[in-house]
Design a protein that fits this description.
By secondary structure, this protein is mainly alpha-helical. It contains nine helices and no strands. The protein has two domains: 96 residues, no CATH class; 147 residues, no CATH class. Helix content is 69%, strand content 0%. It is globular and about 60 Å long. The mean pLDDT is 91. The site of zinc ion (ZN) has 8 residues, from loops.
Amino acid sequence: MSILLAVYITAAGMIVSSFCNVAGMRLAAGGSVWRPPSRCPVCIQPIKKRDLVPCCSYLYLGGKCRFCKNRISAIYPLMEGAGGVLFFLAYARFGLTAEFAAALLLISYLFIITISDITAMLIPDRVSLLFLLGAVLLKFFWLEEPAWTESFIGAVAGFFLLSAIIMTTRGGMGGGDLKIFTALGFFFGPCLLAVNFAAAVFTASMVVFLLYPFGIFKIGKPFPFAPAIAAGGIFTLFAGEICLKWYLSFL
Ligand SMILES: [Zn+2]
């Protein structure tokens, strides 16, 4: 592993996740990703270019807007830091391969759907479509696994699994979740999709269990599921194969 390249990739991960934060919020609000330039939500002052450096800007501004001194949410530097770490881990795990490119595509997609679902409780269809298109192109030109048949079975499995859940829970999950799992089914294939789904349900259950006493979640009240899908997706990316082998050893 080249140390210099690892530093560049980590920095790129921070920049990409910072962009995904903005894209997730703007697409969920039905706006453009590119315009207008980023502004402080309180004083509406355009944010200076030097204050857009991932993580660093938040630290040297003391977590406050340069103009009105309003507190900036810590979620921005946290997501940017997580982006850097995940890009680095993807490089360390896959090296400069087609799998690495696929991992970056997946991580970026999961960042966008997480922010979009947290801020607006919806996942724009075009984000899932773009991810699916990216996955198809990667497979067509470069990526060998999973095989095309596995990808198609995975997409169909994701579609029918979520359709069945939507019908039986009558709105427990939505059309956004359906598109996410169809796209993830294509990306992972059916077996790893099962790992992703199980990990997402486990994550959501744990979060609800831990936060329920604080009144953050109420029975019957919808809550964003995409962050749990994203956590499951990251788990599957790095540990899915190991998890699957461990599970199959019991059969
Ligand atoms: Zn401000």
